[in-house]
Write a structure and sequence with these properties.
Number of strands: 12
Number of domains: 2
CATH class of the largest domain: Alpha Beta
Strand order of the largest sheet: 8-7-6-9-10-11-12
Oligomer: single chain
Length: 384
């Protein structure tokens, strides 16, 4: 069965549902493996196109590193051969479920696809965890990760193109009034003046503020710039940014920058610094004509304050792929607000992202075995 057929079968009960990142690991396990030479070329192209960053030093220089004897992988036994090509002499153990991983992890040096407190308790020899998603906050917050100095790598930037296009889809829904015209269509009404013309934007010349200029934020900025928008951004650590971002500010400049933007996009990870970042005060600094789009984490928003800002006309609308709580409770006011677009945390889904994820995780397996610098190393201190 082709990957496309598998995807259609997995989503047949709900055509709008996209398989989550962790579940998608099983999907890739059933995909045919390419020849090693093709995989090498694919890996190089993938790493370069995503702009993945290497760790500062070879992993062999980390205290406690050794060539792994055993690595547990979230996949099926039938598909370990492709991974074995880059891990000669290493016992790779397939664990398609969390329960199987718990049983297999004693004696393992590394694990791909899992991270939990129970796993760390059982895997006393673990030195490396490869996450299949970008959000690392739950894993690195586990005390054992810090206490045992376990190396954590993640899937940062891998989902950037898909999530960026999801942002642009939401933005275009707002800027062209589609969020209004769609219900009119479903009601069988031809209402040309449903949206005042001054609310139908040409994006050229409008300003987008990207909060969190990482992989997702950079890809979002790239697409917004291509549509003629002026893109400004904030990031937590440095002011450097790509040429298509006209200004990069530090995190403490956010309260001033939100007032300049027509669209504010949150693409930050959830950390102590970003939790409840968007509250009544922050929404109050935005233009009343501005839209807020969240593809970061729901916990970065004070949901009650967002509801009030939307109800009181403090901001014009919100596009949410993540919420707090997630999912929203039945009857929550956000469900029925006409100026809100909600998708159920599916922005990372696409027809190519699973393949891309495994190409990168396979490359990190190769690098760990060889003791080379790793890709996408998570800072335990920063949480991303």
């Amino acid at each position: 069965m082709s990957p496309e057929s598998l995807s259609r079968a997995a989503t047949a009960h709900n055509p709008l549902r996209v398989i989550p990142a962790v579940a998608a690991l099983g999907l890739l396990a059933m995909m045919p493996s390419p020849p090693a030479s093709a995989a090498d070329a694919e890996t190089t192209a993938t790493v370069q196109s995503l702009g993945l960053e290497e760790g500062a030093a070879p992993v062999r220089e980390r205290s406690g590193w050794r060539k792994p004897a055993k690595v547990v992988v979230r996949t099926t036994p039938e598909r370990l051969e492709w991974l074995t090509e880059v891990a000669e002499g290493v016992e790779l153990v397939a664990a398609p479920t969390a329960e199987a991983a718990l049983a297999a992890v004693p004696g393992a040096d590394g694990v791909i696809g899992f991270c939990s407190e129970a796993l760390l308790e059982a895997g006393t020899d673990l030195r490396w965890i490869q996450l299949p998603y970008a959000g690392a906050e739950r894993c690195v917050s586990l005390p054992a990760v810090r206490e045992r100095d376990i190396l954590v790598t993640n899937a940062q930037r891998i989902y950037g193109p898909e999530i960026a296009e999801h942002v642009m889809a939401m933005l275009l829904m707002f800027s062209r009034g589609l969020y209004v015209y769609l219900p009119e269509q479903q009601a069988g009404r031809w209402t040309r003046d449903a949206v005042p013309e001054e609310r139908l934007w040409e994006l050229t010349g409008k300003t987008m503020l990207v909060v969190g200029l990482g992989g997702i934020g950079t890809e979002t900025a790239r697409r917004a710039h291509a549509l003629g928008m002026d893109v400004i951004a904030t990031r937590g650590s440095r002011r450097e940014g790509p040429d298509f971002v006209s200004y990069v500010g530090l995190a403490d400049e956010l309260p001033e920058l939100v007032g300049r933007a027509d669209v504010v996009v949150n693409a930050t990870p959830l950390t102590a610094a970003t939790r409840s970042l968007f509250d009544a005060e922050m929404f109050g600094r935005m233009k009343p004509t501005a839209y807020f789009i969240n593809v970061g984490r729901g916990g970065s928003v004070v949901t009650d304050d967002l509801v009030a800002a939307l109800q009181d006309g403090i901001i014009a609308g919100a596009g949410l792929d993540v919420t707090d709580p997630e999912p929203l409770t039945e009857g929550h006011p956000l469900w029925s607000m006409p100026n809100v677009i909600i998708t159920p945390h599916v922005a990372a889904g696409s027809d190519v992202r699973v393949r891309r994820l495994w190409v990168v995780m396979r490359e990190n397996l190769r690098r760990y075995v060889a003791g080379e610098p790793m890709l996408s190393v998570v800072s335990v201190e920063r949480g991303y």
